[in-house]
């Protein structure tokens, strides 16, 4: 017998001004700056009146940073493009800003100096292990739900400088060979504020140990 199946064509409508992504612009790193959302291939600033602490918690999480530390209009300047014309209704637990509800704004204007600026804390995604203090040891990074060895190319001085800076441990005292475990490779210029800003390689590279100037056990480490 011949079976005939029918196919239904379903057309879904989308909001032409729904945010596709979010960024923090003009700050000191990836975790601070003016909040902007992307819509229709252009970026729009968000007005301070339409953004609260719960929204900030979601944005910080969305961009891979820690908890909000500062929230203020005009903190990182004014945007050059349009203003976002919705008000976010985040509950604070969402993983992405896209997951938050929005509502129409009562007033479609945003006065100068009110483009919201946000500073998030740096994520606790890098650690030094086995060195006797938080400022010395083998470099590990929290990635995909587990701590993994970080590997690097060549002399590793640039990567070590970024690690010490991110951990608030001062400057690099020395870089030593790590254990034999291979880790996910990174390559830094040395000026980045965190390893997340460095280029990431999917090659497995030798791990390394860093001793930063903030370490209180430098003599002990060198003698072992």
Question: Would you give an account of this structure?
Answer:
With 224 residues, the chain is mostly beta strands. It has three helices and twelve strands. It has helices at 53-62, 157-166, 218-223; strands spanning 21-26, 32-39, 42-45, 68-73, 86-89, 101-104, 116-120, 126-133, 136-143, 146-152, 172-187, 199-212. Strands 1, 2, 3, 4 and 7 form a five-stranded antiparallel β-sheet that branches. Strands 8, 9, 10, 11 and 12 form a five-stranded mixed β-sheet that branches. A hairpin with a 2-residue loop joins strand 2 (32-39) and strand 3. The longest helix has 10 residues, at 53-62. It is elongated and about 60 Å long. Residues 1-19 and 218-224 have low confidence and may be disordered.
List the keywords:
five-stranded mixed β-sheet; elongated; five-stranded antiparallel β-sheet; mainly beta; disordered C terminus; SRCR domain-containing protein; signal; 12 strands; 40% strand; 224 residues
